[in-house]
Amino acid sequence: MSDETIQVRNTASGDLMDVLVLRKRTECIEVVIGKGQHSVTCELTPTRTGAVYAGSVMGRELVYERSREQVKAEVEQAEPRIRPSRPSRPR
After folding, report:
1. Main-chain phi, psi angles of 62, to 5 degrees
2. Within a domain: residue 13?
3. Does residue 87 form part of some domain?
4. Averaged over 20-25, what is the pLDDT?
5. Is the pLDDT of residue 1 over 50?
6. pLDDT per residue as tens digits for the range 76-91
7. What is the pLDDT of residue 82?
8. Does the structure show a pLDDT above 90 at 29?
9. Taking the mean position of all CA atoms in its chain, how far away is CA 4?
10. Is the pTM of this model over 0.85?
């Protein structure tokens, strides 16, 4: 299984950067910024409107420009749920 990376925008400079995804859920996306000994984790949570995910690390604001619905679709595609079995028939 390959590691997933996403692009986030640093709002101060406007630069895009690739970050490694630790966990991706609809409520929160946990990412790692940097590599090796100096790496830092950051939690991106949906904004009030649900239009983007935002978080801050070391005083810098990071934005993942995907809506809550888009992330939900990505999560469901990556981890399809097993359909529930049919209820057993009475005998």
Report:
1. -115, 140
2. yes
3. no
4. 94
5. no
6. 887 766 555 667 677 6
7. 57
8. yes
9. 10
10. no
Looking at the structure of the chain, the number of domains it has is 1
Q: How many residues does the chain have?
A: 91
Secondary structure of 18-71 in the HEC alphabet?
A: EEEEEEECCCCEEEEECCHHHCEEEEEEECCCCCCEEEEECCEEEEECCCHHHH
Task: Note whether residue 90 is domain-resident.
Answer: no
Tokens of 19: 């970050």
Classify residue 43: in a domain, yes or no: yes
Where in the sequence is the domain holding 14, given as residue range(s)? Answer: 5-78
Q: In the block, which residue shows the tokens 């950051």?
A: 42
Cα–Cα distance list, 44 to 6, 31, 41 (Å) = 12, 8, 10
